TrEMBL record:
Species this protein is from: Chelydra serpentina
Name of the protein this chain belongs to: Thiosulfate sulfurtransferase (Rhodanese)-like domain containing 3
SMART domains, alphabetized: RHOD
A family per Pfam: Rhodanese
Record SUPFAM superfamilies: Rhodanese/Cell cycle control phosphatase
InterPro entries named in the record: Rhodanese-like_dom, Rhodanese-like_dom_sf
Length: 165
């Protein structure tokens, strides 16, 4: 089913795609210098249940080769802390970051660029932004993506967040 639901609306907002009367088109968005064009048809992806993780599931995955990406803003990480082992890529940077060349990604985020087949888990404060990031990653061809729906709010109920010293 096509339409302006789920990822479509989130992607339109994130990428600045205006909505025409009753529909939208990637052609109606002017290209911005320096940004790569994402030639993806955004669909209403059903990513609710099978892609959401509980605290216990996330805790188990963190022992394996999983990349945990916290999509909150930098000031939120400073103020509230983060899940240990996560890297911070704010939601507004996810599209560009997941398309960077590996050298630039390593310089910017101090971690190897994830491959499209790597297991990615997105987190945020309460699961809303991480779901949007999951949809974006799926639209860019990442096949093993999930999100921690409880976010840092739930994590903090079980164990303290990591804080910068």
């Amino acid at each position: 089913m096509w339409g302006c639901r789920g990822l479509s609306c989130a992607a339109r907002v994130l990428l600045g795609v205006p909505r025409a009367a009753g529909s939208w088109s990637s052609r109606s968005r002017p290209l911005q210098p320096g940004l790569r064009t994402v030639n993806v048809i955004f669909r209403n992806l059903d990513t609710s249940a099978e892609c959401s993780l509980s605290y216990k599931e996330l805790k188990g995955l963190l022992k394996s080769q999983t990349t945990l990406i916290d999509v909150r803003e930098k000031w939120e990480i400073g103020q509230f802390g983060k899940i240990p082992g996560s890297i911070n890529i704010p939601l507004g940077e996810v599209v560009e970051a997941l398309q960077m060349n590996p050298k630039d990604f390593k310089e910017q985020y101090n971690q190897d660029m994830p491959a499209k087949s790597d297991h990615l888990v997105f987190s945020c404060m309460a699961g809303v932004r991480s779901k949007k990031a999951l949809d974006i990653a799926m639209s860019l061809g990442f096949s093993r993506v999930q999100h921690y729906a409880g976010g840092l709010e739930e994590w903090a109920k079980y164990e303290p967040p990591e804080r910068k010293q």
